[in-house]
Amino acid sequence: MSAADAVPHPFADAVKPLVDAMGGEMVAPAQARGDDVVLRWEGEPVVAVRLPHLADSLDHLLADLQRRHGPLPALGRKEKQQVVRILEERGAFSVRHGVETVASALGVSRFTVYNYLNRENAAREGQ
C-alpha cells in the first residue's frame, strides 16, 4: 500500500508482518474487492488485505523455507522431513498438486514425500 493510498496507521503497520508472511497484499479500503478482508480500528476501515490464492501461498511458503534453511534440494533427509512436517502443519498438502510441488522443490520423488508424511502420521499416532 503506497503512502498516496492512505495515511499510515499504527494498526496497518502492526499487521504488515503477518500479511507479508502470508503472502498477502495490503490495499486501501476504498480499493477492496469482494474477497478482500477489510480490517477496522475503532469501527473505521484502516486497511484491506488481499489474500493470495492457495497455490501462490504454497510457493510463498517454499520460498520462505528456502530463505531460512538454504537450497531445499541440498538439505539432508532429516531436514527435508522437518520441512515436510512444517508444510503439512500449514496445510500445504490440501492444495491441488501440493505433493508434486513440494517433491519438486525438495528434489525428491512424490513417493518420498508420501513416506515422510506417513512416517510423521505414524509417529503422531504412537504418542
From TrEMBL:
InterPro entries: DauR-like, DauR-like_HTH. It holds the Pfam family HTH_22. Coiled coil: none annotated. Residues 66-118 form the Transcriptional regulator DauR-like HTH domain. PANTHER family: TRANSCRIPTIONAL REGULATOR DAUR. This is HTH domain-containing protein. It comes from Actinacidiphila cocklensis.
